[in-house]
Design a protein that fits this description.
The chain has 377 residues and is α/β, with parallel strands linked by helices. 40% of the residues lie in helices and 18% in strands. Strand 5 and strand 6 form a beta hairpin. It has twelve helices and twelve strands. It is globular, with a radius of gyration of 21 Å.
Length: 377
């Protein structure tokens, strides 16, 4: 991936020179990571539309997406001209355009509870050859689009370099692009997995790919990458859109097997999403990127009648849009994190505290993350 980033920098330099612009120093770079969240993706779609309205939305050097974020990512990557399509996707498509319910026997005798055939058709409609060609053109300018899935056979995350696929001109590139989008949005057990054809050393087989959120609900770039290997002096800004709540939500749990199991799974997913955001935050602190986070707050309380409820999604789209146009979208620190220990203690006491100390600590309500309590910048 470091080699790909280095090549992207050279393509960007060439594009700048061809446009008559200076390639040294390099212009500032912005990165966007969009999380999973199923129908909560309406928040990210609304936020992007509202961001465009403010006139401050940048062109992104790299966009990454997982699950519903993977469906948003190509349009976010290509820019504000595609905002109307995002609006259409997340405000007019009902559940009948996403899945068909199967009989209860599917739990035992099929590969999923629902048939995601309608989602595959929807993806094929929007992810057409014109969209893929537009992605390829931006890739040749040095921009990157990455989408994450989970290889369930290998229990490994897979990051697909969609721009390279688009620019390859391979006759199966469009089909692969659609399968990647479908796989990244295929919730295991709910939607059937996407089977992707693979050939290794002349042997052909299939890999089972599912929702990238099975392993990680968002990614900015792999933490194992040493950015010092990319010696390009430029100001870099990271934007994270978390399509979901980050604060725990209290609820009375019925003392029965299914409600307990369901609540445990939702708690696991909520905690996983929060930890992914915190991981991205400390990654940006390590590498000197300016961090900006957008997420759903508890002030959004529109009820949902079920998955992909159009009324709920339209309200959430408007909420994300209004957060952006009202200047309330971006947060510099994930909830639960404070800049100093005195500030944390002051917040617990209901007081305010100001300091210029750059020490990073965690809120006392996150004891499981205390291992990074003394991380310094």
């Amino acid at each position: 991936m470091v080699a790909e980033v280095l090549q992207a920098v050279e393509r960007e330099r060439a594009a700048l020179r061809a446009a008559g612009r200076p390639a040294d120093p390099m212009p500032p770079a912005s990165f966007l990571a969009i999380s999973g969240g199923a129908d909560n993706g309406a928040f990210g779609a609304g936020a992007l539309n509202g961001w465009t309205t403010t006139g401050t939305r940048p062109e992104f050097k790299m966009v990454t997406g997982i699950s519903t974020g993977a469906l948003i990512a190509p349009f976010a990557f290509l820019g504000s001209d595609y905002d109307p399509l995002l609006h259409e996707l997340y405000t007019t498509l009902g559940r009948d355009r996403i899945f068909l319910r199967r009989r209860l026997t599917a739990l035992l005798f099929s590969d999923a509870l629902a048939d995601a055939g309608p989602l595959a058709d929807t993806i094929s409609h929007y992810a057409n050859q014109a969209l893929l060609d537009a992605i390829a053109a931006e890739y040749r300018k040095g921009r990157l689009l990455m989408i994450g899935t989970t290889d369930l056979d290998a229990q490994r995350p897979v990051i697909w370099n969609v721009g390279a696929i688009a620019a390859s001109r391979h006759p199966k590139a469009l089909d692969l692009f659609r399968k990647i989008l479908l796989a990244s949005a295929s919730i295991p057990g709910a939607f059937q997995p996407a089977m992707i054809d693979v050939a290794v050393d002349g042997v052909e087989f299939q890999e089972m790919h599912v929702d990238g959120g099975t392993i990680s609900q968002l990614f900015l770039y792999p933490g194992s990458i040493d950015v010092r290997l990319v010696p390009v002096g430029r100001r870099q800004t990271a934007y994270i859109i978390r399509n979901g709540l980050l604060d725990p939500q209290h609820a009375e749990v019925e003392r029965r097997t299914i409600p307990i199991a369901s609540r445990a799974v939702s708690t696991m997913l909520q905690s996983s999403g929060y930890n992914d955001v915190v991981r991205a935050y400390f990654l940006t602190k390590r590498d000197g990127l300016d961090f900006n986070l957008a997420y759903m707050s508890t002030d959004f309380n529109v009820p949902r009648s079920g998955p992909f409820d159009e009324t709920y999604m339209r309200a959430l789209f408007d909420y994300g849009y209004n957060q952006a146009t009202g200047g309330r979208l971006w947060h510099k620190v994930p909830p639960g994190l404070h800049t100093t220990r005195p500030e944390r203690e002051a917040v617990s006491a209901g007081a305010s505290y100001g300091t210029t100390e750059k020490r990073i600590v965690l809120d006392a309500v996150r004891p499981d993350m205390s291992a990074i309590d003394n991380v310094t910048r």
